[in-house]
Design a protein that fits this description.
The complex is a heterotetramer, with two copies of chain A (234 residues) and two copies of chain B (207 residues).
Chain A lengths: L7 H5 L8 E4 L9 H10 L4 E4 L11 H5 L3 E6 L6 H8 L4 E4 L2 H12 L4 E4 L13 E4 L2 E7 L3 E12 L4 E2 L8 H6 L1 E12 L18 E4 L18
Parallel strand pairs in A: 1-2, 1-8, 2-3, 3-4, 8-10, 10-11
Antiparallel strand pairs in A: 5-7, 6-7, 8-9
Chain B lengths: L4 H9 L7 E4 L3 H4 L10 E4 L3 E4 L22 E7 L2 H9 L5 E4 L3 E3 L4 E2 L14 H7 L2 E6 L10 E2 L14 E4 L2 E6 L2 E7 L5 H6 L7
Parallel strand pairs in B: 1-2, 1-5, 5-8, 6-9, 8-10
Antiparallel strand pairs in B: 2-3, 3-4, 6-7, 10-11, 11-12
Helix pairs in contact in B: 3-4
The chains are: A alpha/beta (234), B alpha/beta (207).
Chain lengths: 234, 207, 234, 207
């Protein structure tokens, strides 16, 4: 069971094909798989459908795949940080399926957990409910949402051991575990690969069973909104 | 004189009860955190955190620690982190006592529109639809009218909805209204605002 | 927000009523809420419906509530360790709704996550599917299972802080987090209450939002099957 | 001579491939762990653990560390713990490559019965229904006949089912059979067992 690869390109070797469906972790630019995104840009794989809460920003994160027009369709909850996204979407070059944020996260988890559909009150009576089955439980209406099953998941963790057990740091966890779960193959990039046995088994956020290939690398970890207070305010 | 942004936020903070877990939206709702005083309120950030702290000191920003508005923040002693599926599980499951959100339009039946202007603003709903469908109490904080002077408190929303019949209370610069059977009920007037002024600025039925 | 109570009886005060629905954590005798079970025995509350993977053993764990005939109905996946259970069940005194173990766990999580129903392949074509809606996804049949919403959850963790953030130890985690989630009120017993701030925010298994009342106490932690090997076997 | 329990377990271990995550049922399947040799196999215990280790040394039993059979066990360097919902999420989601399970009856269409004898044995299915519905490959290990000499490899199961059409391969004391179109196919005979003996002990259609 050799899961550790030398580079993002090697880790993605044999997994990419035009028209494929990718689930990506991250929220905004926090906890995004920077290195794997770069490698997909490099690969030139096109007509991608990507499930990701956001689509990066212009020129960074998944925004890079917009610039190269490799994305055919996004499943996202919020794409407001990205002028190129708007341009492609409004011109009809890019398809967009809005998913409420919690619905998107749960759809990923559901896919990973072998649940093809679940009911939620989120979006009832809104445009999100259009074309979806409505069922009443206890006199209240819910809509059917389907599990997401991706060809490949690209995710980012803080540390992983050689068997793929991994831990995330603070709010960089976000969509990474559910995205990892819903990929037929999950490729993970981390800041540090540690020897197996050095992570406490009670502290592992995502067990190695979900992680098929791992790479270690340097991350820019760009900050989207740098908000601070002055020491004297405290 | 109508309330300003900070007064609206302070008034919204009065809605919160000791021990509550609360989600604050972007804009004026964010300011509510400044007015909770001694109350034991735990703020959720729906990207995966309970116990959201203030902005970091300059130079202490952590790219792995942001709120749902993508701003750098800090943690508290009570903080816990979790993934997005768990985060929205607690929202959808009614564990969050209240969400305080901004709005473009609210209707007298509690319908809320706060995520889209067709053909113009197509950013996405983020977590707003999950929040209004899941939390215990939805409190809207917004200006009573838009910049053209048109009422945002309507008989029916004209914009795509975020949720139907979800709003419990509306706090505007002119006062506080509750969604009740048959329309809206005036709970309170902003200092110096008359009932006539509020009624004149309101398209919705006031009962 | 005062969540810490002085005793199990105090922590359950005002929550118990005849005919109520309780979700309980634990697997076998591992990670069970021993002290809260004792307090419910003491309370005399009857006609209980309890969702719990097992029903203890004769005279320990939930088995104590069988001895006092306080249980009307169990939702469980396995009750094979308990002669009194069999006796009451076969004589018609006790109702039993078998739930496959994973279905039971997911039903609890679903209830806690505001999901009133989900589809699963587990049990399709078996007695478990009787009376349940069947739906096809991708040409395969799945059955609809409903979320569990309990009046009270009784669970056991290793350590909790004063705000209810808690951590579990090894396989004693099991059903405790999903059970905690699905209770309108969750009462938790722990081996140690630690000061808020002493648990790493990245290591918390169940955030305090799910936990309403906490007690600390001594646990017997009985072992059901003591299996060992000799040093010389190693 | 038919295989004994350990030979059946050893044969079942041959089914496992390097890197697999595997769930072993109670009884003979538990013995499979003794025969995986150098292969990198990670055992799941469905009560919430990956990387199940051997029984503890005497005096080192930990009540917080048990397997799905409620036996005290140990952890390994690769071990991770998680809750029951997550555990069955990975089972249901097909992340477990194979389950090796005991059975009361198997039918030629892959139906499996291993949890209940009406009016007699009412213990419950535990995680068996989830496992057979979810894992990549279901391998049954059992004696070919019951203690009365009746075949357990049947045209149709008579007992309440654990799953329909779920079994991929059957390993018995007499040999190895695969569930294929139209019935069962003999893959291998136990040492010294003839095809006639196996056919005679099998009620199911052999193709």
């Amino acid at each position: 069971m050799q899961k550790v690869y030398g580079s993002a390109a090697e880790a993605l070797d044999g997994l990419l094909f035009d028209g494929m469906f990718i689930a990506a972790g991250g929220f905004g630019l926090c906890g995004i798989p920077e290195l794997l995104i770069d490698a997909i840009v490099e690969s030139g794989t096109k007509d991608l459908t990507i499930a990701s809460n956001n689509c990066g920003v212009d020129g960074f994160g998944l925004g890079k795949l917009l610039d190269t027009k490799q994305i055919k369709k996004m499943l996202s909850s919020y794409v407001g940080e990205n002028a190129e996204f708007m341009r492609q979407y409004l011109s009809g070059e890019l398809e967009l399926e809005f998913n409420p944020q919690g619905t998107l996260a749960e759809r990923m988890r559901a896919g990973g957990c072998g649940i093809p559909g679940f009911y939620t009150a989120t979006g009832v009576g809104t445009v999100i409910a259009e074309g979806k089955e409505v069922k009443s439980f206890g006199g209240k209406d819910y809509i059917l949402e389907e599990g997401i099953f991706a060809d490949v998941a690209i995710v980012k963790a803080w540390k992983a051991d050689e068997t793929g057990n991994c831990v995330f740091r603070k709010t960089a966890r976000n969509f990474n575990p559910p995205a990892a779960m819903c990929g037929k193959v999950c490729v993970m990039e981390v800041e540090e690969i540690v020897p197996t046995g050095s992570l406490d088994p009670d502290h592992i956020h995502l067990p190695g069973i979900y992680v098929h290939r791992i790479i270690q690398g340097e991350h820019e970890k760009r900050i989207e909104q740098r908000t601070t207070r002055k020491k004297e305010d405290a | 004189m109508p309330w300003d942004r900070n007064q609206m936020a302070a008034r919204a903070a009065d809605e919160l009860e000791d021990g509550w877990y609360v989600n604050l939206g972007i804009g004026i709702p964010t300011l509510v955190a400044n007015y909770v005083g001694d109350k034991d309120i735990t703020l959720q950030s729906e990207n995966g955190m309970l116990g959201m702290g203030p902005f970091p000191f300059e130079g202490e920003e952590d790219p792995d620690l942001i709120n749902a508005g993508k701003q750098t923040i800090t943690e508290l002693r009570r903080t816990s982190y979790f993934d997005s599926a768990t985060s929205f599980g607690m929202i959808r499951g009614g564990k969050i006592a209240a969400a305080i959100l901004g709005a473009m339009e609210v209707a007298e039946n509690g319908d809320l529109a706060n995520w889209m202007i067709p053909g113009k603003l197509v950013k996405g709903m983020g977590g707003a639809m999950d929040l209004v469908a899941g939390v215990g109490r939805v409190i809207v904080v917004m200006d009573h009218t838009n910049k053209h002077g048109d009422s945002k408190v309507l008989k029916e929303c004209t914009l795509p909805l975020t949720g139907t019949g979800v709003v419990d209370r509306i706090i505007t610069n002119l006062g506080v209204l509750d969604v009740v059977e048959g329309g809206l009920k005036i709970v309170e007037l902003a200092d110096g605002v008359t009932e006539e002024e509020l009624r004149a600025a309101t398209q919705a039925t006031i009962v």
